[in-house]
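Entry type: protein chain
Record version: 2
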Amino acid sequence: MIAAILLAAGESTRMGRPKQLLDWQGQPLVAAQTATLLAAGCRPVVVVLGAHASRVRPTLPARADVQITTNRNWRSGRASSIRTGARAVPSGVDAAVVVSVDQPTEASVIEVLESELAAAPEALIAVPRHEGRNGHPPIFRSAVLTELQNVTERLEGLRQLRRRHADRTIFVEMDNPIVTLNLNTPDAYQRALELL
């Protein structure tokens, strides 16, 4: 069983409007990402809100396998949202995929990563790559869930965790360029729409 942590707490200052609410294939990006994670079989999907929470929450489905949690310290950085989400993941999951709302993915990407991680019992982390460039989202085995619950900005969040387990990380080459998309600016958003 794979859980998902969907990070959707940021203020979107570079975008100039809430990224969570950008149109993505006819629905708000955060809702589209949630649907993708559910389609990939992730249970539960833990959505971490912060900035714009009152506007974002109504766009999310009301169902038992979608858990909404609020990071009241979202201004302190992304690591605080990772901690908030990881602490909401129930015990008993085999792994957790960490997805940023502004890094859209597809169910097939997660399914391939899950399969590759399952086939490599010694691995703790699976990271997609496209044309030799590391991408997203990473999947982490439950053995590192406690570390996810304690990442900090000072220690570079997921980067430090991945460095710590570099010898137990696998990289999965993908044909799909979506694994390198980052919707940080209006121009990046437009390029992503054209790619779709």
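Comment: The chain has one domain: 2-195.
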